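Q: Hi! First time asking for a complex rather than a single chain. Here are the components, and I think there are two in total. Is that enough to go on?
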Amino acid sequence: MPNVIKSQKTPRLDMNPMTDLAFLLVTFFMLTTTFKTEEPLQVKLPYSQSQVKLPETDIMTISFGEEGRIFFGVDGKFTRERMLDLMGKHHGISFSPAQVQSFGLLNSMGVPVSNLPQLLDMPPAQRKEVAQPGIPIDSLNNELDDWIVFARIANPKIRVVLNGDQETPYPLVKRIMNMLVENNITRFNLITELEDRAS
Amino acid sequence: MIDKRITNLDEENSSRDARARRESVDIDMNPMVDLAFLLLTFFMLTTTFARPQAMELLMPVKPKADAIQQEQPVKESKTISIVLSGNNRLYHYQGITDPEVKAVSYGKEGIHRVLEEYKASIPGLVVLVKPQETSTYKNLVDVLDEMKASDIQRYAITEISLREKDLIKNHQP
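A: Yes, that's all I need. Here is the structure of the assembled complex.
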């Protein structure tokens, strides 16, 4: 026995507890993680003291930016595909299975329907590069209204979430809110960031 | 016979144990730790912990064309108007006819205190939020948030009239 001790000259670090710890943390993060979603429109959220958490499923998100661009997205692959189908029929545009597939993975988009096939044909990396002009809401061509209607047909349980930039001018906000009320959606959520009351 | 076999087995086991102890294999754990920490870093960076907060907003239902108007009139003395103006300016006044317009700031010392005072002095308070075209989404959210903070149950976002716009314009220096 003394022989053995003498032969160990360099002290050996036992790595096992460290491995245990690392894997414990890995497991924790793997289980709690929800991946950051790719948002084509960067918004600076307004602050509020509201502690209510955003619902995770059955939501349609209407994002609007400072410059007035509007983006639209719903959750759930099935809802997306069904919504696209209805939208395509309404506007007389047919989508290929590959385009439907691609739309099913698309979180949020902001192009007129006529440009949608083109956007869907792009590889995801290229899609990030192009500047999307926003969904038209002119009174003659109000596509946002159509999206809202078809999203509700595709998923009747859907709730509306507004994801707006702080500096968005009020007339645009009013227009979107009126559009929702016209569609008999009177309850909606505004995404905000938690504000420190002390400050 | 069975006993013998058991003892044999025991002997074999003990001899193997002895051998194992002698030439104990050391597994190098470092690559595994590396991998674990790599994964850990990846998940830590991609995760979003804080789900965003949401504020719930209830808008009045659009009145149906054929519905009988059953709107309850509100006493003028119980109405407070808050006008959201451009450049983060904020005004408030009580009543409708010939009101005294006062400017107020956002925040705890400004609008929050004003709302608390109104709430304490007027039972059944109704607040009308009137954003002007020049105001921003942030202004609206701030005011709605103050409604929640002051626990005011009855409030509505309404259109601002021309007369009220004039009132505000006259108040501005």
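A: The first strand of chain A starts at residue 47 and ends at 48. Let me know if you'd like any chain examined more closely.
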